[in-house]
Write a structure and sequence with these properties.
The complex is a heterodimer of chains A (about 375) and B (about 550). Chain A is an alpha+beta fold and about 375 residues long. In chain A, about 25% of the residues lie in helices and about 35% in strands. The chains are: A alpha+beta (about 375), B mainly alpha (about 550). Bound molecules: adenosine-5'-diphosphate and magnesium ion.
Chain lengths: ~375, ~550
């Protein structure tokens, strides 16, 4: 039985240190919800508040209509997967998986049956009677997953479950996690600092910084229409340039360094006035042209051929450095020292107020609650 | 309501914390205060600092301090000189019979100190086998072993294993690439030993020297046995207590206070030094022992086996004498071999001593284990003022010489409401007090290594706190704690300085029993009991080795 999770004005302090000043969010029933943010921003802290391992200094936490602030962690019916797996080293794989069922006093035959089922689900059934020490990291993580899921928890919490695995296993295991989630359909909160991992598994992502939610949205939305400069630069790579918004005959124009000007669309009406702005242009949103074409003028300072794509570093005439990714073409790569013109896929770029706090374009979908 | 609920949940741990604080107050703090007060009691019934004045102004007593420091410095020096190279050879080069060497080295360090000293007397004393041999064949009179020389020889042969163990631990944590790098830079052999190895092991060598120093300073059995006119202050405490010239309790208490102060200072220096000079080295690839060049190979084998044999042989000789026939009185060995010494000690209560030793050891270890597990949990997982207090109190016995513990307990529990003198219980308590800091320290370290997420995982799977503690935390601490407990066991069964003060005929242990025969001059019977004790020790160590597999031995 899955639940929705409702957090209202949560506050967390360690001593005099306020880690989470005021945080609210809703997670839908059955949703795969990810907390994404740089290390130290409070993701683990929030997750442990939900699990009941951290005290709550303020606010309310609900599973459906039930307030859980003071509920014993053992009674919250949560499945938890830890960064270090936390597999009990003195118990066999089978006993690890059966641990929660025993505590819930399930009848013996049912324990056996469920344990078998979940060990099969995560493909560790062949190691059932082994001591976990001899399992690989990926296998241990599967055991942890089975152990958390077998008790049919209302909520599954995972704290950077893949960060101790090597790159290849990480990709494989995130597929496993995603697949199991869609099979079991359980409300899941997943913590990671890896934005690519977050995009690969999540229904929605909450981007956090310094204990505050910046943006809650689908991976596509968070990437394409980030709510502010922090989100734009944390999710994926981007070039931030200073520019000016100029309104001419009620139409918005973006005036980029070096005087290159483009007309743009979709500026929110309240921002339709002349002002300084920050522009986020992702490497793939530039197009390289011959220096005689119109565009941002610059000089190629480096090129890296990576097969599918070629990466360029370009120093603009105004001194800023930008990164550009182009699909590799059969023609020769543009050499270092060549002068180029950069044009922009203007429907894809994002424009922010000068202080970076708000995206002035339409189309930002932010479920963050004020 | 909320607050109340939270409180009641923690209550069981609060209760345990209060209980432990109470135990410490009754059995540690109270006796110490008692000693402190007694130190002011003058023989004429007045109270003053006179006992301290007497100790520091009378050269006869003050000399004992100077003597103790002399012994400790010299023993530390020799232990380093012998132990560091041994550890270096042992870990850097391939050697024959490594396992055997290690077992013997540990055994050397584990035997009761006074038995060690006693076996040296059997070999090199006035009537020693080597002394007599040299005299009868070469008419050569050995220099006298009693006094300073004897103490140094006996203590060094017992304490150099400490240096070996600590240095080995450090060497094992050195990454092989550091050795290779220095060889690349052209630094090899002796130069590498002094320029690379010694500096890298310095923190451990330092820690080992301070421990050796402490042990030598506080050792009681050795100077008692072999010191003769050479007086050291642990023996002086005992003498003042049992009273060669009439018991003077106040004076014994005053020397105890001086002794505690000195060991406390050494202990603080040790803590400061180890924190200042420690650095962590992470070995990805531990040192591989190489084959030594032929010349060196002969030398390292010769050195290691000679050192270990010299340290061990007196004890082997002691075992041997236990099978020799003795005169009727038991004081003189005569020709022929039999089990007569064993039969004799059986008649006089060997079985009671064995039973007492086993009971004391078993009870003490069980109590130590339980207390250490609870204390480490409180200290690591439930930081609070109470747990800090317990942590601090649990360190105090580090600086209490054994005889001080004995005197403190006997003076505190010889009157109502709690009379324990003469019971086995008081010996158990004293052993718990003496060993508990070591077990607590190692339990705290072990628990500190266990991520809290293990317990959280169990709780999130519906296990309650008590079940989690006994089902997850304790079993995970298991192996480390058990090997610690076995070491405590060995130390307890070989202990003399406290039990010699606390024992009565009913409660005497194997060490005390041995001592009784030694002091009567019944060498054969003393040897028989000592051999039984060695057997106990060897069995315990074997079990320990099986338990800790190839983990390091630390004490
Ligand atoms: N038990 C604690 N006591 C004090 N500060 C803590 C504790 N746990 C976490 N913090 C602090 O809270 C902040 C957020 O930590 P955390 O939630 O672990 O970050 P994240 O998981 O996002 O990397 C950090 O600054 C960390 O130092
Ligand atoms: Mg974290």
């Amino acid at each position: 039985m899955s639940v929705n999770i409702h957090i209202k004005n949560a506050v967390k302090r360690f001593g005099n240190n306020t880690i989470i000043p005021d945080l609210s969010l809703d997670v839908q029933e059955g949703e795969f919800f990810t907390l994404l943010g740089p290390s130290g921003c409070g993701k683990t802290t929030l997750l442990r508040m939900i699990a009941g391992f951290n005290t709550i200094e303020g606010g309310d936490f609900y599973f459906n209509e039930k307030r859980i602030n003071d509920l014993d962690p053992a009674k919250r019916n949560i499945g938890m997967v830890f960064q270090n797996y936390a597999i009990f080293p003195h118990l066999t794989v089978r006993k690890n998986v059966a641990f929660g069922l025993k505590n819930k006093k399930f009848p013996k035959d049912q324990i056996e049956e469920l344990t078998d089922k979940f060990m099969k689900l995560v493909h560790v059934d062949e190691y059932a009677n082994r001591i976990p020490e001899r399992l690989s990291g990926g296998q241990q993580q599967r055991v942890a997953l089975a152990r958390a899921l077998v008790i049919a928890p209302d909520v599954l919490l995972m704290d950077e479950p893949l960060s101790n695995l090597d790159a290849k296993l990480r990709v494989e295991m995130r597929g496993v996690i995603k697949k199991i989630h869609s099979d079991v359909g359980i409300t899941t909160i997943y913590v990671t600092h890896d934005q690519e991992e977050a995009m690969a598994v999540s229904d929605r992502i909450a981007v956090m910084n310094e204990g505050e939610i910046q943006h809650i949205g689908s991976p596509k939305n968070v990437y394409q229409r980030p709510a502010n400069v922090f989100v734009a630069s944390f999710i994926g790579r981007t070039n931030m340039l200073k520019a000016e918004l100029v309104i001419k005959a009620k139409k918005p124009y973006l005036c980029l360094p070096g005087g290159f000007e483009i007309n743009i669309e979709g500026v929110k009406s309240e921002h339709m006035n002349d002002m300084d702005v920050q522009v986020s242009i992702r490497p793939e949103e530039f197009v390289l042209y011959d220096e005689n074409e119109p565009g941002l003028k610059g000089t190629v300072t480096d090129n890296i051929f990576l097969g599918l794509n070629t990466h360029y570093n370009v120093t603009l005439a105004t001194g800023e450095e930008v990164e550009i990714i182009q699909e590799s073409s059969i023609q020769s790569t543009i050499e270092k020292g060549m002068k180029v013109s950069l044009q922009i896929k203007k429907e894809k770029i994002n424009i922010f107020t000068a202080d970076g706090s708000e995206n002035i374009l339409l189309g930002v979908k932010n479920d963050k609650k004020e | 309501m909320n607050q109340l609920r939270r409180k009641s949940k923690l209550e069981i741990w609060n209760l345990i914390a209060y209980l432990i604080v109470a135990l410490y107050l009754i059995f540690l703090i109270f006796p110490l205060i008692k000693i402190l007060r007694s130190s002011l009691d003058m023989p004429d019934g007045t109270r003053s600092l006179g006992n301290f004045k007497r100790f520091f102004s009378d050269p006869y007593y003050f000399k004992t301090l100077v003597n103790s420091f002399q012994v400790s410095i010299v023993v530390t020096f020799f232990s380093l000189i012998l132990g560091v190279p041994l550890a270096y050879f042992y870990n850097m080069y391939q050697m024959k019979g490594k396992k055997f060497l290690q077992v013997v080295i540990i055994l050397c360090s584990m035997s009761a100190p006074f038995i060690g000293a006693y076996s040296w007397i059997l070999v090199l004393g006035r009537n020693g086998v080597i002394t007599r041999f040299l005299e009868s064949i070469f008419h050569f009179t050995m220099p006298n072993i009693y006094g300073f020389k004897g103490i140094v020889i006996s203590l060094t042969s017992r304490l150099f294993p400490m240096v070996f163990l600590y240095t080995s631990g450090a060497l094992k944590s050195i990454d092989n690439s550091l050795i290779e790098a220095s060889q690349n830079l052209g630094i090899k052999g002796v130069k590498m030993f002094f320029k690379v190895i010694v500096p890298l092991c310095m923190p451990s060598i330092l820690a080992a020297s301070l421990i050796v120093f402490m042990r030598a300073l506080a050792d009681f059995g050795t100077p008692l046995m072999i010191g003769e006119g050479f007086r050291t202050f642990p023996v002086e405490i005992y003498n003042a207590y049992v009273g060669e010239v009439g018991q003077n309790f106040g004076f014994a208490a005053a020397i105890s206070i001086v002794a505690i102060s000195i060991t406390a200072i050494v202990f603080l220096i040790q803590k400061w030094a180890t924190s200042k000079f420690s650095f962590t080295i992470n070995a990805m690839h531990t040192i591989e022992s190489k084959k030594a060049k032929p010349g060196l190979n002969v030398f390292i084998h010769f050195y290691s086996y000679l050192l270990v044999s010299v340290a061990m042989l007196p004890q082997v000789y002691l075992w041997y004498t236990s099978f020799k026939n003795t005169s009727k009185s038991g004081n003189v060995f005569i020709d022929g071999y039999s089990l007569m010494s064993y039969r004799e000690v059986m008649k006089r209560g060997l079985d009671t001593s064995i039973r007492n030793t086993a009971v004391v050891g078993f009870l003490a270890v069980a109590i130590i284990l339980i207390l250490a597990i609870f204390v480490s949990y409180l200290v690591v997982r439930r930081r609070s003022f109470k747990s800090q207090l317990i942590d601090t109190m649990s360190m105090i016995p580090y600086v209490l010489p054994g005889s001080v513990v004995g005197i403190a307990l006997i003076s505190s529990f010889n009157t109502k409401p709690l009379i324990l003198t003469g019971t086995v219980a008081i010996i158990v308590i004293s052993m718990v007090i003496r060993r508990i800091p070591y077990t607590i320290r190692s339990s705290v370290a072990i628990l500190g290594q266990i991520p809290i997420s293990m317990e959280e995982a169990a709780i999130s799977l519906g296990s309650n706190k008590i079940k989690t503690f006994f089902g997850i935390t304790v079993p995970m601490m298991g192996n480390g704690i058990i090997s610690g407990a076995l070491l405590s066991w060995v130390t307890i069964i070989t202990e003399l300085s406290t039990s010699i003060i606390l024992y009565t005929a009913k409660s005497q242990t194997l060490t005390v029993f041995t001592y009784v025969f030694v002091s009567r001059g019944s060498d054969g019977q003393a040897a028989a009991v000592a051999t039984v004790l060695s057997l106990f020790t060897i069995i315990s160590l074997t079990v320990f080795m099986l338990f800790s597999k190839d983990k390091d031995v630390t004490m």
